[in-house]
Amino acid sequence: IVSGQIAVNDGTIRGGDGGDVPPPVGDANGGAGGNVFVFAGPEEPGMLINRGLLRAGDGGRGFNGGPGGDLALLATSLLVIDGGTQQAGAGGAGDGDNGGSNGEDGAATVAGATIWNNGEVTQATDGFAFTILGPASRVLAPGARVLVPFIFLNRGVNNDAYSLIWSNSAKWPLENLPDRVNIAALRFGVLLVDTRLPRDLALGDQTMLRLSARSQGDPRLANDRAVRLRVGGATTLHLPLVGRNTQLQPTPAVPNPPTGVQNERIFMSTLFR
């Protein structure tokens, strides 16, 4: 995720490709391509300029190919495409000879109050419009805490609220799932689902957690997004790094850090705009 009052890309921002499964693939699926999200605003000037390449990652090869990553660009004021390229990731190749399938291509979303696309100017006119983005899968241990980010893009010119309905294919008893989220016009919000897997699950158990959202401003509009939750071994949660302070004194808990490693303090920011 790249976010700021002004976002300018003159080079390349690319999501990582999903991992390939080496032959023989068996029933292992390819990894999901990495997503690329670039947002400008809401503080003025809220301008995003792309003169380079913005591309999500491709899905990996496997029995079933991994899904391609999603690409999303959102500017609260002006989005300028000046010879730049925006691409979602391609789905990975599957083992069709043995019943597998190719992964789905990622989706591309481009939105702004005003869009200048190589000389062609368009204005946002939809009163209500929204998109949901999120990860393809999570691998966790039984009883582990689940943190799943769903990104809501309000592409409309009106503030909106969305009613949320949750389901999961294996009927796992998941708690603390929100039922509503509010997003201002031409803004985005990260809905961070915070729940916990049951403790009595076995290695390989899985479910599809599906979020269905409906606009309250225009109830005819609905979108859904699903993420696969699968039980694996013990995992490590990697949180996004926002800032780093390497000038701190060694802490009493680690009196002798390994050579070449500095004590760090990591700062997190809430991703609501």
Q: What report would you give on this structure?
A:
This protein has 273 residues and is mainly beta. 0% of the residues lie in helices and 42% in strands. The protein is built from no helices and 20 strands. Strands 1, 2, 4, 5, 7, 9 and 10 form a 7-stranded mixed beta sheet that branches. Strand 17 (206-215) and strand 18 (222-231) form a beta hairpin. 33% of the residues are buried.
Average of the residue pLDDT scores: 84
**Alpha-carbon Rg, integer:** 20 Å
Annotation, overall tally of beta strands: 20
* Low-pLDDT residue spans: 235-273
If helices are DSSP runs of H or I spanning 4 or more residues, what is the number of helices? 0
Order of helices and strands: EEEEEEEEEEEEEEEEEEEE
Percent of sequence in beta strands: 35-45%
- The structure class reads mainly beta
Could you give the distance between the termini? 13 Å
